[in-house]
Specification:
The longest helix has 14 residues, at 128-141. This protein is 21% helix and 32% strand. The strands form two sheets. Strands 4-3-6-1-2-5 form a six-stranded antiparallel sheet. A five-stranded parallel sheet has the order 9-8-7-10-11, sandwiched between helices. It is α/β, with parallel strands linked by helices. Bound molecules: flavin-adenine dinucleotide (FAD). Flavin-adenine dinucleotide binds at residues 45, 60-63, 76-78, 80, 82-87, 126, 129, 216, 240, 242-244, 246.
Length: 247
């Protein structure tokens, strides 16, 4: 029984692109129709597999960007220069085109709306994707769990979900950190996340928050190290690494 459930969950399913939205000039949200999708938790990811006409296959992981919504599944893909899969998904891949998806994958980097502890979300670049699924899951469940989001990005133009995040939400506190260019009129200079940032913008360690950190590998490791140095319980720090950073 358990084996059937597991193999069923990880079966490849054919998804077709139903809609898309450009988040930035280089990042696209893809909404798929995925019949038979078993559902997922905010924070989980999927494997996406492309097959070329000559049978060549490429497979990559992508985080689910939205909470469960029937047979609809949403991903946001950042185009990486010379990236085999991301250039296709953010370029020629068109409405109605098929792709194979399996999942959901990952149970540790997941947030359940029944969890009452405060939540700290720390995103680096496209690492915002699974954290946005958590913010959306909180809203969909109508719970008031206190959330803080610290979103590090290179420039204001690279922000994903800008309109949605601009709308104030009670109990969701957002801090932006810009590493290359500040929004017009914002005082200070660009900088990376550091001890001072997390000391000011994160929950104090004694609040016992659960932290979810996601982004390029080096970013995630730096942020996790700082949280631990500030006294956060390492068992409450959950991380997801997207891969190399070109910064
Ligand atoms: C659990 C998990 C979840 C992920 N979720 C997302 C997501 O929600 N959205 C998203 O856009 N990506 C996500 N990724 C990254 C994604 O899986 C791919 O690595 C990325 O799309 C690049 O694949 P590619 O085929 O286009 O590039 P490749 O052809 O594999 O690589 C091309 C070049 O880009 C570099 N590169 C590879 N991966 C990255 C990267 N992540 N960042 C910067 N440079 C890279 C390579 O070193 C190489 O030089 C996730 C990764 C993991 C492990």
């Amino acid at each position: 029984m358990a084996r059937t459930a597991v193999s069923g969950r990880l079966a490849w399913r054919v998804a077709r692109l139903a809609e898309f939205r450009d988040e930035t000039p280089t990042a696209r949200t893809l909404v798929f129709d995925l019949p038979g999708w078993p559902g997922h938790l905010a924070g989980q990811h999927v494997d996406v597999r492309l097959t070329a006409a000559d049978g060549y296959r490429a497979q990559r992981s992508y985080s689910l960007a939205a909470p469960v919504n029937g047979d609809r599944v949403e991903l946001t893909v950042q185009r990486v220069a010379d990236g085999e899969v991301s250039e296709h998904l953010t370029g020629p891949y068109a409405i109605g085109d098929p792709v194979e998806i399996r999942g959901p994958i990952g149970g540790w980097f997941a947030w359940r709306p029944t969890n009452p502890e405060p939540v700290l979300l720390i995103a680096g670049g496209s690492g915002i994707v699974p954290l946005m699924a958590m913010i959306r899951a909180r809203r969909a469940a109508g719970v008031r769990t206190p959330f803080k989001l610290i979103y590090s990005l290179r420039t204001p133009a690279e922000q994903y979900y800008a309109d949605e995040l601009r709308t104030p939400v009670a109990g969701l506190d957002i801090t932006y950190v810009y590493t290359r260019e500040l929004p017009e009129g914002r005082p200070g200079i660009p900088k990376r996340i550091d001890v001072a940032t997390l000391n000011t913008a994160a929950w104090p360690a004694e609040f016992g928050a659960t932290s979810f950190i996601c982004g390029p590998t080096a970013f995630v490791e730096t942020a996790a190290d700082i949280l631990q140095a500030l006294g956060h319980d390492p068992h409450r720090i959950r991380t997801e690494r997207f891969g190399p950073s070109r910064d």
